[in-house]
Amino acid sequence: MNTSYHPKQWMKYVLILAGFYNLAWGATAIMLPVHMLGWLGIQSETTAMKFWQCIGMIVGVYGVGYLIAARAPYQHWPMTLVGLLGKVLGPVGFAAAMADGSLPTSLGWTIVTNDLIWWIPFAMILWGAMRYCHATDSAYETPEADDPLKELRANTGERLDDLADAKPQLVVFLRHAGCTFCRQTLADVAAQRKEITAAGCGIVLVHLGGNDESDQQFFQKYGLNDVPRISDPQSRLYRQFGLDLGGFSQLFGLRVWFRGFVAGVLGGHGIGAVRGNSFQMPGVYLYHCRQILGGFRHEISSDRPDYAALARKIEVREPALAS
């Protein structure tokens, strides 16, 4: 697999540090509850001491879990997730207790060191683990020698090169069928279809689904069931054309949410269940005689290229090819 999907070295050290910190904090709470409570301004009554020691045991157990997770941060992501949930809910509970005067503000120092400072690194580890899981069992972990152009065929039985040798093809790489932007793309392609074909281009759709009846109905909904389409659930062609899995801002940034609302709600495209690799980025390329003549690589998943304008570029390129 591409090393960019592997855990970063700092993730291991963060989890090791979190593990030893929790063990040290837990051991101190168990063995020296009076001193800790006194430093925090809490009366060390018997009940408070026993309760504090119980908290110390819980914190210490989490430390063991973090040390285990440090051995393989992505494989053991559930431990990091549980830890992050605790580090988020802890401050919430503290804020509620402080609001009604149940706990002193001095206890806030433990919230900072036990919880808040770990939010960002733990969240980054979890995000990396998600990308790693989406890269697993896909083209992003197969050898670079993989040649999908020779192996993958459209529903018509032809390879992409066969279609592109006959005439230029506008190759549209889609996101999964449940994605609002995938649906918007199909609607745009259908609306601009006459302009695209008038420019001398064919259209090929590359998608992450299969070729079953539900997929046929999906494309039929947009009047594109007769367009050649290539099923590529492992993202082999996507990688061949230089497309990659998206980063956080590319998939979940503020602009993506805003455009998702506009396309999904105001535009009526809606949203459906995830069907395919939801991290896969889309794109569109003008492909002819085994050459990429132009294209648009999405910076964010909600980008909306002008497909007809891209198809018209062939009018400029063709004389150069002929010479």
TrEMBL record:
GO molecular function: antioxidant activity; oxidoreductase activity
Domain Alkyl hydroperoxide reductase subunit C/ Thiol specific antioxidant, residue spans: 159-243
InterPro entries the record matches: AhpC/TSA, Thioredoxin-like_sf
Organism: Fuerstiella marisgermanici
NCBIfam families: SelL_rel_redox
Keywords: Membrane, Transmembrane, Transmembrane helix
UniProt protein name: AhpC/TSA family protein
KW Nuclease (keyword) present: no
Segments passing through the bilayer: 50-69, 81-99, 111-130
Superkingdom of origin: Bacteria
